[in-house]
Write a structure and sequence with these properties.
Largest sheet: none
Strand content: under 5%
Distance between the termini: 34 Å
Shape: globular
Oligomer: single chain
């Protein structure tokens, strides 16, 4: 029975992990053309609305669905069908109220929220996203309920459907609104009419793009409602369920501490955007449009580390449950070995990814933004700094999980707050400096994650039964990554010079590909030659045994 449960758990985790990969790939397909349509100004409007949306969602979806999942799982394991139904019927009304309140605030308070973020032109995008808050709350309740019964497939399918709608509805709608603005410009005979009308239409273009998110949540709700109606357990049960008040108290008792912990970063991001936009306008005397342009270039560069981190950290997160099990058995040597493996995998994956983004920052941005080359050239220096931030983002995610494994769930809240306060203070000073201006935003982001990771590493060392040897874990990957970065930079430079005179975009794209391939080959050789990985580091990932044999790992 235990074996079956374990297989069921691992199978469900695999389903969700596969869905996450698909969703992130679709997200990359969405963001790359989206940035080319929106440009830096539209990107600021889009991200302003999305940050507010994420912040409101945290309160409804960060901890409460986990509480529903836990309570449902307990009732499911005991065969209490009536209790399960009562948990869902009670919780859905709680989420209905939260979602309605969030959507109402976003829709009717859009002007005030946009003004708070020093970005009044983002109001249309905020309104377009308002219904999604209501839908996501309902989705969170239904996903928590189905996951609590060990069924991850509905969640996975609804997540993929949601992502597909962003691409299939949001992008065409944004393109259509832009096309209408360009057609309207044909009525004007003076120079610059097209650019002016597209610029004026940018708030509507951003709203159209973000409506794809709303449409995705609506369709996902319809899918899950249909699924639950057609897969409802109609068997009668004799158990007597708890009262609605007791269930709500249980849900809130479990969910609120998690929600408060996760809300810290959302609050910091909102204040951070407000400070960046505010300092650009108040200290540097820029117009809202000029400030949005600079902020949008920074946000475009920030997309790359975010996308890469989403693919890197799930590889190591799969090891953490095994570490928790070893800690529960007081097998500290085993737990230390698993955590060391997680550190090595993060180092092997995140450090070269960060170095690669930094070394090829501007060429990569030029590759990603073929229609926005001016924005690409401006975003390149930001990505050069944010590439190194990627390393610390991945380390932060890993060390947060390790501290939770050690039963120190509250510590990451305080370390994130410390990093966020550092980011806010540095943004206020640096962005307001005319000689630094928007370049202060990526610098403060890097310093934010440096502070968080520095504190987390200290606490991991403090509470680990067997102290991790950080120098031993990170020295070889850092050396290999620096050599890889040098190889990638040299190969790109050689290819770019050899292709000079050809299509500027095509030559850059081919040179980037040559640089990446050179870096990958050099790094792969160094990983084996320097024996950076061990056999136990890869055995827990899919086809790990074959990989260990192929690389002759011991």
């Amino acid at each position: 029975m235990a074996s079956e449960k374990k297989q069921s758990f691992l199978g469900g985790a695999a389903v969700l992990a596969f869905a996450v990969v698909i969703v992130k790939l679709i997200g990359a397909v969405y963001k790359i053309p989206l940035n080319n349509i929106l440009g830096s100004v539209g990107k600021t409007y889009f991200d302003t609305a999305y940050l507010i949306y994420n912040f409101l969602n945290i309160f409804a979806t960060a901890g409460l669905p986990l509480a529903i999942s836990k309570l449902t799982s307990q009732a499911h394991a005991q065969g209490l069908e009536n209790q399960k139904r009562k948990i869902f019927s009670t919780s859905i009304w709680l989420f209905f109220a939260l979602g309605l309140a969030g959507s109402t605030l976003m829709f009717f308070g859009a002007d005030q929220l946009a003004a708070f973020e020093e970005n009044p032109m983002a109001a249309q995008a905020i309104r377009a996203l308002a219904p999604a808050v209501f839908c996501v709350c309902l989705l969170a309740c239904m996903r928590g309920y189905t996951q609590g019964q060990g069924n991850m497939a509905p969640t996975a399918a609804s997540q993929v459907l949601e992502a597909l709608c962003k691409v299939g509805i949001g992008l065409p709608l944004a393109w259509y609104i832009m096309r209408q603005a360009r057609l309207a410009a044909l009525a004007y005979s003076y120079t610059g009419a097209e650019d002016r009308l597209v610029e004026e239409a940018m708030p509507n273009i951003a709203a159209g793009a973000i409506f794809g998110v709303t449409a995705g949540t609506i369709l996902s709700v319809c899918f899950l409602v249909f699924y639950m109606l057609t897969h409802r357990n109609r068997e009668k049960s004799g158990d007597r369920p708890s009262g609605s008040g007791a269930i709500i108290r249980q849900v809130l008792a479990i969910g609120i501490p998690i929600t408060l912990g996760n809300s810290a970063l959302g609050i910091i991001n909102l204040i951070d955007t407000k400070i960046v936009m505010g300092r650009l306008q108040s200290a540097l005397l820029l117009t809202e449009n000029e400030a949005a342009l600079l902020n949008g270039q920074y946000r475009m560069a920030m997309d790359m580390p975010s996308m890469v981190a989403s693919f890197v950290y799930p590889v190591t997160m799969s090891l953490i449950p095994f570490a928790a099990a070893a800690m529960a058995r007081r097998d500290y040597a085993k737990a230390n070995g698993i955590i060391s493996s997680a550190f090595r995998l993060i180092a092997v994956l995140a450090i070269p990814a960060g170095v690669g983004l930094s070394v090829l920052s501007t060429p990569i941005m030029r590759l990603m933004l073929p229609k926005r080359q001016e924005d690409a050239l401006a975003a390149g220096p930001h990505l050069q700094i944010l590439g190194f931030a990627l390393i610390f983002i991945c380390l932060m995610i890993l060390t947060n999980a390790i501290l939770q494994t050690y039963g120190k769930e509250r510590l990451p809240i305080f370390t994130v707050i410390a990093g966020g306060l550092t980011k806010i203070a540095m943004n206020y000073v640096l962005v307001g400096n005319p000689d630094i201006n928007i370049s202060g935003a990526p610098i403060s982001t890097l310093c934010c994650y440096l502070v968080v990771v520095g504190l987390n590493l200290f606490f991991v060392w403090k509470y680990s039964p067997e102290k991790p040897r950080y120098l031993q874990l990170f020295f070889k990957p850092v050396v290999a990554s620096l050599l890889m970065g040098g190889a990638a930079w040299a190969a790109y430079g050689f290819a770019a010079r050899a292709l000079a005179g050809h299509s500027a975009y095509g030559a850059n794209a081919l040179a980037v590909l040559v640089g990446i391939l050179a870096g990958v080959l050099v790094y792969a050789v160094l990983v084996v030659a320097l024996r950076i990985l061990r056999a136990e580091d890869v055995r827990s990932i899919p086809h790990g045994e074959k990989i260990a044999k192929l690389l002759h790992l011991k």
